[in-house]
Design a protein that fits this description.
Layout: E1 5-6, H1 8-19, H2 24-33, H3 49-57, H4 59-68, E2 71-72, H5 77-88, E3 97-99, E4 102-109, H6 113-119, E5 124-128, E6 138-145
Parallel strand pairs: 1-2
Antiparallel strand pairs: 3-4, 4-6, 5-6
Length: 146
């Protein structure tokens, strides 16, 4: 099955809501009811009405995006940094180093690694710096622009 592909802005909105404690069930319920007024103060610069439009286009695809994950169509360097912070709570200089062509020495938990791999657009490639093993719950990777 091919991954659901979404825009960077859609990913930002979904991860911002999740990061503010909004469950996937509540997200779906509010989109079905077209009642997003409680989200107006979550991130005032976002137009969450766009998520209603996206949901209305194909509800089953949107449900799959929430439950099965997604691939962002195109991610910029800044977009990658923002998604790492929003989705995985990873911050430059604490969890990874920024390089000229990507991110180096990112420590990612083994349970989050598949979601990160799935999320990345085709303009990024992951290089594994350490192998996962049973005693180590994290993996160290680099994500490079291709």
């Amino acid at each position: 099955m091919e991954n659901n592909r979404i825009t960077l802005m859609d990913a930002y909105m979904i991860e911002t809501l999740r990061g503010n404690g909004i469950s996937d069930d509540e997200l779906l319920s509010r989109l079905e009811q077209k009642n997003i007024s409680p989200w107006e103060n979550v991130k005032p610069t976002f137009d969450f009405n766009e998520l209603i439009k996206f949901f209305d286009q194909n509800p089953s695809t949107f449900i799959s995006i929430l439950s099965d994950g997604y691939t962002v169509k195109f991610i910029t360097m800044k977009g990658l940094q923002n998604l790492l912070k929003m989705k995985f709570d990873k911050i430059e200089n604490r969890d990874y180093q920024l390089t000229d062509n990507g991110i180096s020495h990112l420590k990612i938990e083994s349970e989050s690694y598949p979601a990160l791999k799935q999320m990345l657009s085709s303009n990024w490639v992951i290089h594994e710096l350490t192998e996962l093993d049973g005693s180590e719950p994290t993996q160290v990777i680099s994500i490079l622009l291709v």
